[in-house]
Amino acid sequence: MIDKKALGAVIKGKRKAMKKRQNEVSSETKLSRNYISDIENGRYAPSIDALSRLGVCLELDLNMLKMTEIQVADK
């Protein structure tokens, strides 16, 4: 299970480090700005497709995400 807030923080941090606005990411990924905001704020876990688009746009290597930071033990 994925920690949505931690994943959103990683995505938001990368976006801000690249000095991109949500509108720019929205335009490049064809995802709505509201959906990107919801992902960044931990309200939604992105689909594989959305995560892939965000990864390309933000130059985020999805294989390098530290699973210990975004994964929650199933209880």
UniProtKB/TrEMBL annotation:
PROSITE patterns: HTH_CROC1. Coiled coil: none annotated. Residues 11-65 form the HTH cro/C1-type domain. Pfam families: HTH_3. SMART domains: HTH_XRE. This is Helix-turn-helix transcriptional regulator.
